[in-house]
Design goal:
This protein is α/β, with parallel strands linked by helices. The protein has 12 helices and 10 strands. The chain has a 6-stranded mixed beta sheet with strand order 7-6-5-8-9-10, sandwiched between helices. It has a two-stranded antiparallel sheet with strand order 1-4. Strands 2-3 form a two-stranded antiparallel sheet. The chain starts with 7 loop residues before the first helix and ends with a helix.
């Protein structure tokens, strides 16, 4: 499809308008909870770039396919392909994101043999990326299964691969799953393209492992400064996030320590957020409890 790639300014606007990046209301809360079991003032949901309703429907479809024990990896992969491409072909925004990924890719198409993507959100973007370039797609499942439509597993050795992901955070999925699985199949990894990069930890880990990385946008301090300068967020939000990037502990002391209400218990935390709050209270990873014993006591009593 001949979709028009986004300009940098257009893509910035899309990130904000789609709520792919959400910023909390520091006056009322609730704070966001990250997979590491710590709170923060913003959250990244890359798949929302294509629209919240459509992304939720597509993720539900993929979850249903992956969770169907009656299907083998080939049948699951073919069903995922059909679901993703149906969504992709109905959505101009989706098409423009993939067009932007292709246009800005640092990897010459002539040097790529196939595209890989990992279960589940990577497939949102890896499947149409491969389709647009007419390349094979390698579906990587978390249990170690792989499937490539054009051939058997034994034929993967030596193929030059670019891995497509939705988000690079701390790169745990890369090091725990995708990179070892690609290495086991003797793939020649040229590098990876991610729609969004959150922070620097994952990027640094991948670069230290000699993995070439390209992302459309980094969710970092310059991005929030740019959002404020464009009038998309208030300067107070940019100032708060600047403090968060400089010192998470100082951010917590200023914005959340004396305010148990912003932890979201009254609003009804989902199970995952509650589990992360429990971890935070038990482990106190930032060493905050000595200064906030009453807040910690209140939160423990409310759980």
């Amino acid at each position: 499809m001949a979709a028009t790639p986004y300009s940098a300014h257009e893509f910035l606007g899309l990130i904000f308008s789609s709520k792919a990046v959400s910023i909390w209301n520091h006056e009322t809360g609730p704070v966001f909870w990250y997979a590491a079991g710590v709170p923060g003032p913003f959250y990244v949901n890359t798949e929302k770039l294509i629209g919240a309703d459509q992304s939720a429907a597509l993720l539900d479809a993929i979850n249903g396919i992956v969770g169907d024990a009656s299907l083998n990896p080939e049948a699951k992969s073919e069903a995922v392909r059909e679901a993703v491409l149906k969504s992709y072909r109905s959505n101009d925004v989706f098409q423009r994101i993939v067009a932007t990924m292709i246009e800005t890719s640092p990897f010459p198409i002539s040097e790529i043999d196939l595209i890989s993507g990992g279960e589940r959100r990577d497939w949102f973007f890896s499947v149409p990326f491969a389709e647009e370039l007419g390349l094979d797609h390698l579906y990587i499942f978390k249990n170690g299964d792989v499937y490539r439509r054009a051939g058997e597993k034994s034929n993967h050795a030596g193929m030059r691969c670019v891995h497509i992901s939705d988000l690079i955070n701390n790169a745990a999925s890369y090091f725990d799953k995708w990179l070892p699985i690609l290495a086991d199949h003797k793939m020649d990894l040229l590098g990876t393209i991610s729609v969004i990069n959150r922070g620097q930890v994952g990027m640094d880990r991948l670069k230290e492992a000699d993995v070439k990385v390209h992302t459309l946008k980094s969710i970092d301090l310059p991005l929030f400064s740019e959002l404020a300068q464009s009038g998309l967020i208030p300067q107070s939000s940019s100032d708060e996030i600047s403090l968060y990037f400089k010192s998470k502990e100082d951010w917590a002391r200023q914005y959340i320590l004396a305010r148990p209400e912003v932890f979201g218990l009254d609003a009804g935390l989902d199970a995952k957020s509650k589990e992360r709050l429990q971890f935070f209270l038990a482990q106190d990873p930032w060493g905050l409890e000595p200064q906030a014993q009453e807040t910690f006591k209140t939160l423990r009593a409310a759980l």
